[in-house]
Amino acid sequence: MTAVQVVEDRRVCFDFEVDFSNGGGIQGQGFRLDIDGGEISDQALADYIVRDLRLLMVGEVRILNKQFIRERHKRKAKVATETVAETRQGGLIDLSHVVRDGEVVFPGLPAPRVTEHMSHEDSRDRYADGVSFQIGRVDMVANTGTSIDAPYHRYPGACDIADLPLASIADQDAVVVRLSGMQGRAITREALAATEVRGRAVLLDTSRALLWGAPEYVVDPPFLARDAAEFLRDEGALLVGIDAINIDDTGDPHRPAHSILLEAGIPIVENLARLDALPIEGFRFSATPMRIAGIGAFPVRAWARVLS
Predict the structure, then answer these.
(1) What is the Cα–Cα distance from 259 to 271, expressed in whole angstroms?
(2) What is the pTM of this model?
(3) Residues 193-200: contacts with CB within 8 Å, 24+ apart?
(4) Which of 14, 53, 90, 125 sits at 20 to 30 Å (Cα–Cα) from 271?
(5) Count of alpha carbons within 13 Å of 51, Cβ hemisphere only?
(6) Contact by Cβ (8 Å): 159, 150
């Protein structure tokens, strides 16, 4: 295992007050901004606020309570390198969790059973000296591990896993929405409104994947709110992925996110891993299942190809 340097991003947190020369003003509290290096002047922050909010007739800008923090960039983050060299090979980043025998992920669903139909030892009598084979057997529900939902998962008679077009699940232009540290559980429309999603796979990075395998992973996870699902549908997202156990609030029997996205033919990928290793954009996303008919969900090997 080769250790490599980890990207340590810096951000500035501050309050601001803006007075307009024709009367009135606006305020902001706890505003956070990506910065290069460790410092930025009050004047540079004031200029940024005016430019980014496209303000006119500005009289005065006051920067208050400025502090510098270590936090991943939210806009144009670099690729985060990792200590596990296998995670990134030739621009490829693995975004899948490992499925292990007996590991329960979703409460109420059976754990996967990984066994052998034929072991190397049992096969030796069938072949020449020194030749052996292993044939494994897996018994599991279709939503095990990192998995994809086709419309049939929600709607009878709709497109199943076998009928998913390759263009809808492989080599898609993609974007990450950084949501780590958000208040509350619901990912709302407002959290996505600044992101260009049309024609892209949209991956929601909540940092929930860090709890994978622990009991806390399934307790009060983040979820996509109805208005956010409608926004993604209306703005033309191709696929939506999340690093949590379910894209919906599991306490809501209406399942609005599944209903809205799958009705529009937008596949959903749940239980993604290592989204924090990706840049915000500049990569292609794939999540490909076995082409199996008559089923609405199935595990995938999900990965990203970072463009040079």
Answers:
(1) 18
(2) 0.78
(3) 193/231, 197/231, 197/232, 197/235, 197/236, 197/237, 198/235, 198/236, 198/237, 199/173, 199/236, 199/238, 200/172, 200/173, 200/174, 200/175, 200/237, 200/238
(4) 90
(5) 6
(6) yes
